[in-house]
Amino acid sequence: DADVTQTPRNRITKTGKRIMLECSQTKGHDRMYWYRQDPGLGLRLIYYSFDVKDINKGEISDGYSVSRQAQAKFSLSLESAIPNQTALYFCATSGTSGDSYEQYFGPGTRLTVT
Amino acid sequence: KQEVTQIPAALSVPEGENLVLNCSFTDSAIYNLQWFRQDPGKGLTSLLLIQSSQREQTSGRLNASLDKSSGRSTLYIAASQPGDSATYLCAVRPGAQKLVFGQGTRLTINP
């Protein structure tokens, strides 16, 4: 079984709808991240969480919110989706020292906003 | 602001060749550098992590080097195979926990 899972894998939604993307991990990592990937722009950090009580904005947090429900679960919400939020979204996890800083990524969610 | 550049954006080579992918970054104050592989429409697979105190890491046919002072890293792939075809991403960790990614090099290995 995959260490980092994301649901749904694909989603098409309409402008203005609320949508939640979910991420779960079995690696026992404290730190979790949400990124989006756009052609020509690479991967950009949306939010990250160092533990269940710690949430931090990344470089492109506007229009997004997150919830860290447990050590293993980190969800990303789009309160009112807009077409320029169409992208591939990745969740990632990492540990807290040395080689455990290595980030592990989920398979991604392809989101299309029409 | 840390910026990561990967050149070339695309590379096509015949099977069996040894090849080098390049990554450069603007600020040498990094904690580590990570190389990833991404297959089309798929997630990122971590290939190698080099800590700032290390010069290189090896895994099978892959060898990554790091020269912090010059802001460069290379990923060497020996005896390339068609299954190596993918996009290779370089990312540096400048501080806290964020990673700053390059745009990637799309590699095609021709049988």
Commentary on this structure:
The complex is a heterodimer of chains A (114) and B (111). Chain A has 114 residues and is an all-beta fold. Chain A is 0% helix and 56% strand. Chain A is built from no helices and eleven strands. Chain A has strands spanning 4-7, 10-13, 19-25, 31-38, 42-51, 54-57, 65-70, 73-78, 87-94, 104-105, 109-113. In chain A, the strands form two sheets. In chain A, strands 2, 4, 5, 6, 9, 10 and 11 form a seven-stranded mixed β-sheet that branches. In chain A, strands 1-3-8-7 form a four-stranded antiparallel β-sheet, with no helix packed on it. In chain A, a hairpin with a 2-residue loop joins strand 7 and strand 8. Chain B contains no helices and eleven strands. Chain B has strands spanning 4-7, 10-14, 19-25, 32-38, 44-51, 56-59, 62-67, 72-77, 86-95, 98-101, 105-110. The termini of chain B are far apart. The model of chain B has no long low-confidence stretch (mean pLDDT 93). Classes of the chains: A mainly beta (114), B mainly beta (111). The interface between A and B is medium-sized, with 27 and 23 residues.
